[in-house]
Amino acid sequence: MTKRVSRLQSVEIEAMAICHSFSMIVLTVVATTTAGESLSATLLGLKASKAFFLDFTNSIFNAPMLFFDSTPVGRILTRASSDLCVVDFDIPFSFAFVVAPLIESVAIIGIMASVMWQVLFVAFFAIVASKYVQGYYQASARELMRINGTTKAPVMNCAAETSLGVVTIRAFNMANRFFQNYLKLVDNDAKLLFYSNATMEWLILRVEALQNLTLFTAVFLLVLLPKGYVHPGISMVQWNNSFIA
Fold it and tell me: CA–CA distance from 44 to each of 53, 67, 166 (Å)?
């Protein structure tokens, strides 16, 4: 009896040691992945910002005078500031937010495919459908970004010119007119932000609809398969995880 108890205790100790070792390995992998993701995002962001700044300054200093005659200085400064903000802030954060879900999605698909390989067909059709819809979104998003650059420059020019001529404007009692003109320019610039958000919601709605349609079609086809071809319990758990993910 004593030997059996000691043997059970040793087995429990070994199991706890294995669990602790496995937990430490998982935490180490997660910490290493997180640190590598943050470090890579920072280094790539610095490299992209440096490359953009050098190319931008070289293009400005080597541009002919005709370029400055046809392009307002406010539009150049607006384009430089907006693009630098995108490179310095938006792209690194977007990279961090994209890499983590990508790793998670690949891990989920891999685990599900190891149990039921039919999931690969669903993943393939879902990716193709998302890529097809994304092609329509990219053309509209690029055009909206280009128009946003043309609508933001008048706002900056109006603010700069109004601040320089504020004494003359108040002397002729034209403050209300300039204020109304400024509000119209701000409204025109804000419309582009609304349209950009609308296109993003359009993309999300279509992608989710196509993915759900693909999942429902796959589940319906699995139901029509002969009995015993796919284990019903495992298949339902897998598809439940698919809908949750």
Answer: 14, 31, 44
Contact 243, 112 (CB under 8 A): no
Classify burial at 22, counting beta carbons within 10 Å of its beta carbon; exposed 0-12, middle 13-18, buried 19 or more.
exposed
Q: What is the DSSP string of 190-203?
A: HHHHHHHHHHHHHH
DSSP H helical ranges for the chain: 2-61, 65-70, 73-85, 91-115, 119-164, 166-171, 175-223, 232-244
Residue 66 scores a pLDDT above 70: yes
Radius of gyration of the chain (CA): 29
CA atoms within 13 A on the CB side of 79: 16
Name the nearest CA neighbour of 122 among 231, 222, 230, 203.
Answer: 222
Alpha carbon 201 to chain centroid distance? 13
In angstroms, the first-to-last Cα distance of the chain is: 50
d(CA 167, CA 173): 10
Q: What is the mean pLDDT of residues 155-161?
A: 80
Q: How far apart are CA 54 and CA 50, in angstroms?
A: 6
- Domain count for the chain, please give it: 1
User: 3-state class of 117 per DSSP?
Assistant: coil
Whole domain around residue 163: which residue ranges? Answer: 117-245
CA-to-CA distance for 167 and 174, rounded, in angstroms?
Answer: 10
pLDDT tens readout for residues 189-237? 888 888 888 888 888 888 888 877 877 777 777 767 666 666 655 566 5
Give the per-residue pLDDT at 92.
76
CATH of the domain at 172: 1.20.1560.10
pTM above 0.85, yes or no: no
Tell me which amino acid residue 172 is. Answer: F
